[in-house]
Design brief:
By secondary structure, the protein is of the alpha+beta class. It contains one helix and five strands. A hairpin with a 1-residue loop joins strand 2 and strand 3.
Length: about 100
């Protein structure tokens, strides 16, 4: 069971998580300063706050370190459910754990 305010355990990405990635790809590319040929969600963690924070492991293609960790904040539905990329970590590997930025 998830603890309120804490990130849940890493889970396999769902269609909903992929939809979030699709919606924020432009923001992620702008923050990373590059374009991604592939942008497939692999796994994620989430944290319910006044909205929801997501950390999403995304496969971005055929480079040696071909994953990014995408940090996304989703506003509450009453605030329009807007999605904002708050951070991105590039050069990650599939084996790197999804951890909140300290």
């Amino acid at each position: 069971m998830d603890r309120p305010g804490a990130y849940n355990e890493e889970r396999k990405a769902t269609k909903e998580v992929q939809k979030i990635c699709d919606q924020v790809k432009d923001q992620a590319e702008a923050k990373a300063g590059t374009t991604f040929d592939k942008f497939q969600a692999i796994s994620y963690r989430s944290q319910v706050v006044a909205g929801t924070n997501y950390i999403i492991k995304v496969d971005v293609g055929d480079t040696p370190s071909n994953y990014v960790h995408l940090y996304v904040y989703e506003k509450l539905p009453c605030e329009g459910s807007a999605l904002t990329v708050t951070n991105i970590e590039t050069g990650m590997k599939k084996s790197d754990p999804l951890e909140p930025i300290k």
